Amino acid sequence: MARSLKKGPFIDDHLRVKVAGMNARNEKKVIKTWSRRSTILPDMIGHTIAVHNGRKFIPVYVTEQMIGHKLGEFAPTRTFKGHAVKAALERAAGVAGAPGAPAAGAAPAGGGAPAAPKG
Fold first, then answer.
1. Are 75 and 36 in contact (CB under 8 A)?
2. Rounded distance, CA 78 to CA 25, Å?
3. Rounded Cα gap, residues 103 and 119, in angstroms
4. For 21-35, what is each residue's pLDDT tens digit?
5. Rounded Cα–Cα distance for residues 103 and 109 (Å)
6. How far apart are CA 102 and CA 106, in angstroms?
7. Strands in the chain per DSSP E
8. Do 63 and 72 meet the contact criterion of CB atoms below 8 Å apart?
9. Which spans in 6-68 are helix H?
10. How far apart are CA 107 and CA 18, in angstroms?
11. CA–CA separation, 25 vs 23, rounded Å?
């Protein structure tokens, strides 16, 4: 559920102070933060914020299109290594080219309409 508009976007105070201080001094240094829940504000545009993902800090360069999103959206916490089913199908397709293997477009064994009774 979205946050109430009268409250405004949430940003941790310590992060807000760091960004405001860097804007006042006209600095562009990397800001380290664990605050994945903070919303990106227009004041943050052009800064690089290192967001912790549970293991390491991921540098996130803030652009105009990121306003309104959370910092955690740009620092994934899980490593995607592919779908197991897709890997199995690719292995099977590699074997399908071998002699004696079923054709690539052939229906799987045991599938389809039931066989007519013999007799």
1. yes
2. 36
3. 30
4. 999 999 999 999 999
5. 12
6. 6
7. 31-33, 48-52, 57-61
8. no
9. 13-25
10. 62
11. 5
